[in-house]
Amino acid sequence: MRPMIALAALAAMSLGAGLASAQNNISALKGHDSKAPIDLSADRAEAQDRVDRAIFAGNVIVRQGSLTLRTARLTLAYANQNGIDINRIDASGGVTVTSPSETAKGDFAVYDLEDGLITMVGNVRLERGGSYLSGGRLTIDLDSGRAVMDGGLRGVNQDGGGRVTGRFTVPRRGGS
């Protein structure tokens, strides 16, 4: 069991801290302002004011600071007091979240703006540089920059079989 713990620690350090230095910020997403303005575009929009919800479909693109989310369908939950206060985004139909240095892909995602958490499920892949981790579920804490990958349920993540898998690039050192 110890090799698995060491691998998990290595994976977290490699993806979260960058391959060059484990002393740097945990993630490029650390400190992302989940209260920053949100820009959104889509092929179609539907407002459902009675239930404080809006649905967007078709080539949906959401931008907040340096974070971009792309998906086929998105539902915004909001509070309608003194303007619209978005508190949750649910995305489905293939979701890609990008920051300047990382890309995460999955089948579904939930962005909880109040808690600053992004959770992705279903065939999740987190990439940074030439390294990646794949699994069933990824949770990113935007305040701390901590990313946690789970294998998910067996049968849900077909490629990994309920396990976290990955590949890490190793920089070449020395003369030859």
Automatic annotation (TrEMBL):
<keyword id="KW-0732">Signal</keyword>
<dbReference type="InterPro" id="IPR005653">
    <property type="entry name" value="OstA-like_N"/>
</dbReference>
<feature type="signal peptide">
    <location>
        <begin position="1"/>
        <end position="22"/>
    </location>
</feature>
<dbReference type="Pfam" id="PF03968">
    <property type="entry name" value="LptD_N"/>
</dbReference>
<dbReference type="InterPro" id="IPR052037">
    <property type="entry name" value="LPS_export_LptA"/>
</dbReference>
<feature type="domain" description="Organic solvent tolerance-like N-terminal">
    <location>
        <begin position="41"/>
        <end position="145"/>
    </location>
</feature>
<protein>
    <submittedName>
        <fullName>OstA family protein</fullName>
    </submittedName>
</protein>
